[in-house]
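> forwarded from #structure-qc
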């Protein structure tokens, strides 16, 4: 790998987000048993509302995209919160410790 110019960070890919899957976007009736369960679970903190992230009965997470009182529906997105997003980080290496070495100051801790 080539070295970056002096004083410039070198880009590195440290991970990737998963693809956004439209099959994980769904709309359910407000009286659906899962929505009723969520209303009960989150009642003390405002119930089900737009923007809230909830834990589904299958253990997955979903974001409430909209609550349409007139239509009696709740639209949810069960994709990972960062699905389809590009994440760019700039990191600075503070110290390189060889295998079996100690971090500077570790002896003082």
């Amino acid at each position: 790998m080539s070295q970056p110019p002096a004083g410039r960070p070198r880009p590195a890919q440290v991970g990737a987000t998963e693809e956004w899957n439209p099959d994980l976007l769904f709309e359910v009736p407000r009286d659906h048993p899962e929505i009723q369960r969520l209303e009960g679970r989150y009642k003390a903190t405002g119930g089900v509302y737009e923007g809230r992230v909830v834990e589904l009965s299958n253990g997955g997470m979903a974001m409430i995209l909209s609550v349409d009182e007139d239509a009696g529906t709740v639209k949810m997105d069960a994709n990972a919160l960062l699905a389809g997003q590009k994440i760019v980080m700039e990191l600075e290496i503070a110290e390189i410790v060889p295998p079996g070495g100690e971090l500077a100051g570790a002896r003082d801790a």
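QC bot note: The CA atoms of residues 57 and 67 lie 19 Å apart. Residues 25-77 form one domain.
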